[in-house]
Target: Heme-binding protein 1
Amino acid sequence: MIFISGLVGFLLLVTAEARVGNSSSLEFCTETQQCLLFDLICETGDYEVRHYDSVKWVSTKETSFFMEMAAMRAFKRLYQYITGANENAKKIGMTAPVLVKMVDKKFWEMGVYTMSFLLPLDHQINPPKPTDDKVYIQQMPDMKVYVRSYGGWMTSMSDSNNAKSLSTALNSVDAEYKKGFHYAAGYNSPMTMFNRHNEVWFVAEDEPVCPSSEELEYSFLS
Model:
């Protein structure tokens, strides 16, 4: 009995820390039942700083000159996984956001794009094994990220423009963040025409920089 109660307590602790939960907790997560939750550390006029707990994702890599082409192939592969292409032929609910790791590259270079679907809470502990060897389960670490949100469609151009705007804002306050890549996060179905929500994430290297409004005003005037 003690063992069982201890095991139940451990499982509850793991799922509580996973921070995958009801989408009603986020005003911009409206199309799926579950969403990746976070703690808001601070926000300025240019970005938010969020803390995300370590969670599991199902991921796949695709190589292309353009994110749009890679994303179509990667999305199809991951969608097959959640609709039954796994060892238990299990149907898995769609969640948000869909995450794409964007590695820095020149316009004319081929790039490797990693797309990930967040695994729902009931599959965080023991997700079904993919049957496609190009699909894999990964656990992303606990991290703090700088976030810039924008509307419309997520394209190579819109992502690049917003990533540049975010990096410019971070550089202006001497924020330390991981270079060489960023994440593009999308919260909407391709069928959604209006009120779309996208994000750019840079992973914080050190303690995040959260300047006050007075400090921000001074930095731009000086």
